[in-house]
Here is the input.
Amino acid sequence: MSNPAARIRRRDTAVVAIASASVLIVLTITGSLSLSETILGSLTIFALASIYHLSVSIALSPEKKQSARPQAKTTRADATEPLSRAMLDQLPLPVLLIGADGRIERANTAARAFLVLESERGLLSASLRQPSVLEAVERALKGKASEPVEYSVLAPVESHVRALVSPLNVEIDGKFNWQAMLVLTDETPLKRAGRMRADFLANASHELRTPLASLSGFIETLQGHAKNDEEARDRFLMIMQDQTDRMRRLIDDLLALSRVEMDEHVPPDDIEDLAIISREVLEFLRPQLSRRQMTLDTNIQSEALAVGDRDQMFEVIQNLVENAIKYSPPDSVLHLSVEADLERQAVERAPNFLPGDISKMTLAVPDEESGTRYTVIRVRDQGKGISRRDLPRLSERFYRVGGQKSGPKEGTGLGLAIVKHIINRHRGGFAVESAPGTGSVFSVYFPSGKQSEGLNPGA
Ligand code: ADP
Here is the structure.
């Protein structure tokens, strides 16, 4: 059966051709045209009508229309394909589309990296061996929704993932099919932060509970059998005083740590002289130094400017000098040096300061900002030193090197954690060098606010 539109066009062609032929015949009869002109005109009208008739029939034939439709559709889909692929690839979340046969139809860049996929079109079960996720995908391929699924991987590194699987009803070749969209979220940093918070609370309560338990024990003893023992009472009261001091130090350090953490993302912008601040710290700690009969050896430049917060810079130097006093034997020498305006390489690649079997560890580094110059403070002691194994953990909260005695005033294990946070806030660096049996050198460096001249494009 022919198409109605084609029929109408053919009829119109015939009408025009017959009308033109009639005009030609009339003109021939009236003698206006010669016979040869009439024949030529008729042939022209016939040829034009035939060409028009043929072209209309081909253009409007049903087969032609059927094959034209999907082609037009594919063209439009093809045009948006690169755009949607590029958008998916820009998404930082791993996203996958799973076909009805359980194969990966599409995986964005993040998904390919996350699941280490070599190619798309593999079976999802071959790349993700998580029964709970695969079950949710199977449900989605039947058009059923599922709750988000969480799973953990222990190797090569421990990670925690949340998988969201949604059913998608997709039209393919005019038929609707169920596919599954799988979105993965790496929850490892969140879990780790949660665990750290829980560990921190457990550690803080444990640290506070120890002196508290000791205090309540002494109170009980003083109320009981030591009630009338004057000598024991004085001794116990002194221990109780030490324990309350320890609790106060812990609370002060915890508060200091939380204050530093709160403004860690806001770098300070004052210019301070670390030469002056260092001398003030040494003056402040002079009684502690002389109590341990320690000798002070300094090499402080007359001016050592750096960008920073005065109180926090004081706190950093005080912590390092106090540690050097606490962890060194009496009669030893404590060196403190302040050097301004150094390139980062000169600070970080300085030759060893100690003889013997040296271990070095960087505990904080500045964000890469080429050309920044630094003012560095080094505190060197002749203490017992720290073993290579302990160095990386030094700035962890509550970490104390086992078996190390710091005198009657036992440390809190928070001092170096505070130093590290302050240094991070200042976009500075923090490193330690130690040789067990010989001593340690703690170095901190603050940006001096100056740039290396060689890096100035105009120079
Ligand atoms: P603390 O209050 O215990 O001194 P810190 O965070 O300042 O806490 O130090 C953590 C641990 O690092 C200390 O307990 C000590 O074991 C070790 N330490 C720090 N400074 C020195 C040093 N100069 N020499 C040897 N060990 C040190």
The chain has three domains: 4-191, 199-262, 267-459. The chain has 13 helices and 13 strands.
